[in-house]
Amino acid sequence: MEKVNDPCAPDKPSNCGGECGTNDTGKYCFQLPQSIRFDLTAYDNTGTHQQTVKVYIGNLLVDRLTRRGTDNVIGVKTYTKVCIEIVGDGKPCKLRYAYSPLDEKPGTVIIGAENGINNNYNNSMVVLNWPLL
């Protein structure tokens, strides 16, 4: 199998107006275009660890998913600044994310969470897309 270079390397700038990277804090915040409607879908994808996905609008906690399993989904529609926090077994997960507003045209944010040791970032997934029609 051929090795693929990491497109989200922290030292590689993005040319699409977005960003990508990793953190160990379990929380990632980003700014959506003003007054934009968006869709958020969060998946829990582990039968081993209890995962909690928290959705913040500004600083206000507006929704949460706490489960263990692979069949759990939440959806939210709203406006403004969004923060996603993912905790596994009570500890902040390592996150890997990509944020691409594409010149404030239809955009996406994808966040993967890892709370184990295999670094596959699939214990929880959060996907946002906008604008909604």
Automatic annotation (TrEMBL):
<protein>
    <submittedName>
        <fullName>Fucose-binding lectin II (PA-IIL)</fullName>
    </submittedName>
</protein>
<dbReference type="Pfam" id="PF07472">
    <property type="entry name" value="PA-IIL"/>
</dbReference>
<dbReference type="GO" id="GO:0030246">
    <property type="term" value="F:carbohydrate binding"/>
</dbReference>
<dbReference type="InterPro" id="IPR036684">
    <property type="entry name" value="Ca_lectin_sf"/>
</dbReference>
<feature type="domain" description="Calcium-mediated lectin">
    <location>
        <begin position="30"/>
        <end position="132"/>
    </location>
</feature>
<keyword id="KW-0430">Lectin</keyword>
<dbReference type="InterPro" id="IPR010907">
    <property type="entry name" value="Ca-mediated_lectin"/>
</dbReference>
